[in-house]
Design brief:
Blueprint lengths: L1 H20 L21 E7 L6 H14 L3 E7 L5 H11 L6 E5 H9 L7 H4 L10 H6 L1 E2 L2 E2 L2 E7 L1 E5 H6 L11 H11 L6 E3 L7 H11 L5 E2 L2 E2 L4 H15 L12 H7 L3 E6 L4 H6 L4 E4 L11 E9 L9 H13 L2 H4 L8 H4 L2 H4 L4 H5 L5 E2 L7 H16 L5 H16 L1
């Protein structure tokens, strides 16, 4: 009870701080669209982001550059902690007070907010200022609902493949050549497992299975939810989970009882030779001084090239008035042309001006991320994907810990998720 109250108190205090930072600008019926000016007399818009990690200052750089590039508009940059972000967004949008003019939202959240009539359709406000041809087409499709645009993509962040170059060399493998398919992956993992605490590939039993499991399913040509039916017990999903389990029980390249982040710890310690995670891990690897490589995820499935990913998108709350549209468009256009700072955070911006530039191509990780843009697949177009995917992730955990057989666990997960979907 104490933990619940302290969390709720934090959110209330956070909202009070954000309200103060917004100079009293509220989006209620009496104040929605109020023309708020900054101290310099320019039109001010408020931007909320969940970038409370090392990526936050990089977005701040873009905002500062925009503010200093002209004197007509000012962006008020406000970071809401990632752990409290959507709770804070929900409270604000439902209360209809102190609503930001612009927000960053993950792609898998957009549909839920659209169906609750909380986001503005951007087709009518992008105009000539925000040119959609300047963005990766797959990223744009991920920000659409029923063919209508509700987000301007900032990036795509798919699953990535990392490996320890020193361990590769010690095992007689070329440190600059990662595996590209399942056969090579298993072969490499066996060579990199030495029987004394060093493993070729430590299988996570929890996060980031939310990215790994769907990746293999999509590579198998499968789907997770389609036409209102949960497909967690389909052959493509069962095979993907059986393969992951075989790395533990058959090939013996992974320990069997990995706890949360155990695979990350072993990778940092030089005891896990290959690892899959998101591009957000770059800073941690570099800070640890690892001699690592990064590449697109190998073809671990059986049918097609695919990888699971999510995205960050700029969205506009439904209540934001037209008088804010020009400032929003100018900032979005500026970010598309001047987003290199976001690439420096380890992410790959979805704007072509950035990811097709020579400067971007010279980076270590970011070009590898962009190589997967066109075949990245996102979460199913359903409300509350997080809640619907929980039964699947619980089944994955139980199977990888040896507590249940794959088909049994996935059939149970399918029934539970179908009840939630209905």
């Amino acid at each position: 009870m104490k933990r619940f109250l302290s969390g709720k108190l934090f959110i209330i205090l956070l909202l009070m701080v954000l309200a103060a930072c917004s100079n009293g600008n509220e989006a209620g019926s009496d104040s929605a669209g109020e023309n708020t000016e900054s101290a310099s007399g320019s039109e001010k818009i408020t931007l909320w982001v969940p970038f409370s990690g090392p990526d936050g200052p990089k977005m701040q750089e873009i905002v500062d550059e925009f503010n200093s590039s002209q004197d007509e508009f000012t962006v008020d940059y406000q970071v809401v902690p990632q752990s409290e972000y959507y709770t804070t967004v929900d409270l604000t949008l439902n209360d209809n007070r102190n609503v930001p003019d612009l927000m960053v939202m993950h792609g898998d959240q957009i549909l839920t907010y659209v169906e609750n009539d909380l986001l503005k359709n951007l087709d009518d406000i992008t105009g000539d200022t925000v040119n959609l041809e300047d963005y990766n087409e797959n990223a744009l499709e991920g920000a659409m609902v029923d063919g209508e645009l509700y987000g301007i993509p900032l990036d795509i962040h798919p699953l990535m493949f990392y490996w320890n170059k020193d361990l590769f060399e010690a095992a007689g493998l070329d440190p600059d050549v990662p595996p590209t398919n399942r056969e090579e992956f298993v072969e490499f993992a066996q060579k990199l497992t030495d029987g004394s605490g060093q493993y070729g590939y430590v299988v996570p039993t929890l996060w980031p299975q939310q990215f790994i499991m769907p990746t293999i399913v999509y590579q198998n040509g499968g789907q997770l939810i389609e036409d209102g039916q949960v497909l967690y017990d389909s052959e493509e999903v069962v095979e993907a989970l059986e393969f992951q389990r075989s790395l533990i029980s058959e090939y013996n390249v992974s320990p069997s009882d990995v706890q949360q982040d155990g695979e990350v710890t072993l990778f940092l310690q030089g005891k896990n030779a290959m690892h899959m995670n998101g591009p957000w891990m770059l800073q941690q690897w570099e800070d640890a001084g690892l001699n690592f490589g990064v590449a697109p995820v190998p073809m671990l499935g059986t049918e097609q090239e695919a990888v699971f990913g999510n995205s960050h998108n700029f969205v506009v709350p439904e209540v934001v008035g037209e008088e804010k549209h020009e400032a929003i468009k100018q900032f979005l256009s500026f970010t598309a042309e001047n987003g290199m700072a976001w690439a420096e955070s380890g992410q790959a911006p979805a704007a072509k001006a950035v990811y097709e530039s020579d400067e971007f191509q010279e980076m270590k990780q970011q070009p590898e991320v962009a190589k997967q843009f066109d075949y990245t697949q996102f979460s199913p177009q359903v409300r509350n994907w997080g809640q619907l995917s929980d039964p699947l992730m619980e089944a994955v955990n139980e199977v990888l810990l040896g507590q249940k057989e794959p088909r049994e666990a996935l059939e149970e997960a399918t029934n539970r998720a179908q009840q939630r979907l209905n």
